[in-house]
Structure formats: C-alpha cells, structure tokens
Amino acid sequence: MRAWRDAAALTGVLALSACSAMLNLTVSGGLDRPEVTFDQGRRACVRDLAVYEKTGDAYTPLWSIAAEGPRCVRLTRIVYGETPAGFTAGSAATPLRADGVYEVTGGGMTTHPLSQVPWRGGARFHFRDGQWRILQARAGAVSPTP
Q1: DSSP for residue 40
Q2: For the chain (length 146 residues), average pLDDT per consecutive 10?
C-alpha cells in the first residue's frame, strides 16, 4: 500500500511540473512610458517580455528583454524601453504611436514554493483616446513570428 501511495504522490508532482500557468498582463500609462504589470500588480518571476506592433497580418518587433542566465527575475512592473536589472534588451525600444495595436507577450515561472511551473501571458492592446484598451487576452501566448 505504501508503494502505491508513494507512486501516486510522485505522479502528482510530475503532473504538476508538466503544467503551465497563465498570468494576466496589463498595460497602463502614456505612449512615452507605458508599463506592464502582472495579475493586478502581483510580483512575477519573469524570463522574457516582448512588444510587437500589429499591422494587418504582420507583427513588427519593437522591443524585447530576456533575463540574463537561466533564472527568472521577480518584478512587479516593466516600463517599456527601460531594461530592468538582470535583463538584456534585444534592441532599443521603438517609439509607440497613437491608434497603434500592440501585442505584448511574456513568460517566466510561477512563484509558489511547492509548485513552480512555467507561465506564459500575452494580450493585444490598442492605444486610443489617451488610454490603453485590451483587445484580446491569450492563454498560453507565444511570441508572434514577425
């Protein structure tokens, strides 16, 4: 009986490690310094974040960051164009424009000590009338291919 119970516990741990989670991304602020927050300002362990402009069916990469090394970095927010400590930027940030449609994607690890699993998050936003509006949230988002 003990061997069966141990096997069930191991299976549960392996099943948990094979899961992934979704974090909600929010964009706020103006076009000059928009900031991304995670799950209503919760601290997230981030490995990467990318911003694309969507025009028609095409995605143009505007800015991306990636954690230095294999570990994620815990952050509460990321300001567009400002590379946080522990990250490298793929390129300088391209200025954003009013009425633009932008795709933001990111990933990392959840922070619960007993069940850390990878997370992905993404959403499409539109800047109009001085504010960001969400157009579409995407579960398990992957970076668009430009």
Answers
A1: T
A2: 35 37 85 90 91 93 94 94 96 93 92 79 91 80 48
Beta-bridge mates of residue 73 = 46
Could you give the CA distance from residue 44 to residue 31 in angstroms, rounded to a whole number?
23
The residue to which tokens 């310094």 are assigned: 33
Between CA 104 and CA 46 the distance in angstroms is 13
Those residues with Cβ within 8 angstroms of residue 99's Cβ, 6 or more apart along the chain or in another chain: 126, 127, 128
Residue 7 CA neighbour count, 13 Å, CB half: 4
What pLDDT is attached to residue 20? 61
Distance between CA atoms of 57 and 135, rounded to whole angstroms? 15
Model pTM score: 0.78
**Token couple for 71:** 């570990």
Q: From CA 111, how far away is CA 114, in angstroms rounded?
A: 9
Q: Which helix (H) or strand (E) holds 17?
A: helix 2-17
* Predicted local confidence at residue 53, as pLDDT: 96
